[in-house]
């Protein structure tokens, strides 16, 4: 899509539009050039949504909600690109088979329905700070379904060149990020509370936000009011959700991609992004969050289990125990050396049990319904290890 001198060509864009904007059914054979263009725009949309969402939660730990706040605008641009892409897939049939398209459509639809619900919820109930609210859950669910659709589309349509595995890894890590996102409530909250303890009366939150939070619980402005919106969840939620519900995405990624240290790479990619975000937010004087460095231990534990000479059905049993022990141990170390949300150590068996059930379910599902290429070739990667 460029002229000889490398600049964008309006004529070329018109040529491609006239060539490909034709009615077709899902699963239509897609030219490599068109596929690359569409999924390049998907990555742009998802990056904008990632940055907008990440900035948004920091924004709301500093000031009251604003429908037109810059993080919302950034997220909206990403969402707009995603909607345009889903419409293009739907009308032309290019770049997505029927199942992939359904994931994209349902995910986008749920997300769009959730937006006005979320606006009404916050106009009625006030503070836009709890990531665990029902309206926010709809946003996460819609985004997750959309991401799964994009990941499936990439797997089934992308050429098996040097960028295939990298794109597959990034998309699966974005799925993990979406699942992990509610836990950021506690990760930002613990540093919000620490900002008060360092300088009582002058936390990250501005005066308007402090007064609003205090009025909601009928208390004067103070540490109690700050803690009310900073750390509203019970201490067991953070480790149980993070380990019991999210780490299974790392195991699924390792199983699908089939390469050694895939789970560690996914965890490292996510933690690296969060660490970079911490630097940017701190440098720009926005509230930062605790970075979940302990996830590296979870990724290593997942990968270690896949190296053991055991069956795919025993792997979740051993993995759930190893991941839970390693994660809770490193989370305790991080709490002492750096900063981490409060946790309830008694919840470790609950987290291990949840991870075991989900890991077994994922193993059964991937064994029963292996991914298929457009040519019908299936890949069962539950026991394979591709180290190339």
From TrEMBL:
Keywords of the record: Membrane, Transmembrane, Transmembrane helix
KW Transmembrane (keyword) present: yes
Keyword Ribonucleoprotein found: no
TM region(s), chain numbering: 34-55, 75-94, 106-124, 136-155, 162-181, 236-253, 265-284, 290-310, 317-340, 346-366
Entry protein name: DUF2029 domain-containing protein
